[in-house]
Amino acid sequence: MPSMKVEGDSDGDGDLSGGDTERSGGSSRGPDRDSSAEEADEPDSDDSSEMDESECERRRNECLDNLANLENQFMVLREQLYDERVKDVEYQLAEVRGGRSPEYLGPLRRLQENMRIRLVM
User: Fold this and answer.
1) Neighbours of 96 (CB within 10 A)
2) Cα separation of 15 and 110, whole Å?
3) For 36, what's the count of Cα atoms within 13 Å in the CB-facing half-sphere?
4) Which among 10, 11, 12 is positioned nearest to 22, based on CA atoms?
5) Residue 11 in contact with residue 3, Cβ under 8 Å?
6) Lowest CB count within 10 Å: 5, 98, 116, 121, which one?
7) What is the rounded CA–CA span in Å between residue 74 and residue 67?
8) Which tens digits make up the pLDDT trace of 36-84?
9) Dihedral sign of CA atoms 10, 12, 17, 23 in order
10) CA torsion, points 38, 44, 50, 52, in degrees to nearest 10?
11) What is the pLDDT of residue 87?
């Protein structure tokens, strides 16, 4: 009759499931002890909770002010970027109208060359 394994027994084949269970069970107890110790350190007075609420409210307002400031900076930078792009497009358009734009002259030369070739044929 085959022998039955009991959890935690090892047959020597490298099966560590029993040891893993013991280690994982032991490590899960660690945070419970820490959290209970933290709870014991906290004072039970109502004054500290009011200070915590006021501190939280102050920090919340400070964060909201920072967010509003960042949003304003973003709007200013977005408008600057838009203005720069509009100026760049206007400059390129002025070069095209004046016949000086390299982006315009290259394709224009190829079109004129194709036109000349087709007219000759």
Assistant:
1) 14
2) 76
3) 5
4) 10
5) no
6) 121
7) 10
8) 555 555 555 555 556 688 899 999 999 999 999 999 999 999 999 999 9
9) positive
10) -10
11) 98
